[in-house]
Specification:
There is one protein chain. The chain is α+β, with helices and mostly antiparallel strands. Helices cover 44% and strands 16% of the residues. It has eight helices and six strands. Strands 1-2-3-4-6-5 form a six-stranded antiparallel sheet. β1 and β2 (41-46) form a beta hairpin. α1 (3-13) packs antiparallel against α2 (18-28) and α4 packs across α5. The longest helix has 16 residues, at 102-117. It starts with a helix and ends with a helix. Residues 17-113 form the YdhG-like domain. It comes from Marixanthomonas spongiae.
Amino acid sequence: MDTSEKVGQYIEKHEKWQDELSKLRSLFQKTALTEEVKWGAPTYTLNGKLVAGLAGFKNHYAIWFHQGVFLKDEENRLVNAQKGVTKALRQWRFEKGDPIEPDLILKYIHEAIENSKAGKELKPKRHKKDVAIPPLLKETFNEDKKLAEAFEKLTPGKQREYANHIAEAKRDATKQKRLEKITPMIKQGKGLHDKYKNC
């Protein structure tokens, strides 16, 4: 099945928004963008770079601009769908009865294309993820300072393995058992899976 058929299927699947998504698709097809399917949805790229996408949801449909943060958005149409999570991505959301204004939409798409050509890109920062410490582990650190210090010296990856090992246990008794098992390992500076790494 080629890309065009896949996009057609995606639009058919969103019965509620079929006409609207088809109209938006026809606007993208008037541009220099390449139609692809990524993450199961229609996506439009320029020289392999993500520019925009279409999506249908339960109560709305939308255009995604992958570097939408750089769009002027003079008409105030764009929203950050996940504030605090997405930095560059912006969404133009349409609800039932909202007009599709071809000239305006094309203006936004063309601006996104120009921004892509100019290399405007906000890359996600690959920063260290904070390790979520489960309550039982936190309590134990308060009681056992040496354990807390040893845990701090571990790499973030090893810290995460231990934290998840405790958090994933369903029962308190299992959590406690696991804690007893890992305490000496942490104090020795070992990782949870170290013994398997040299096999």
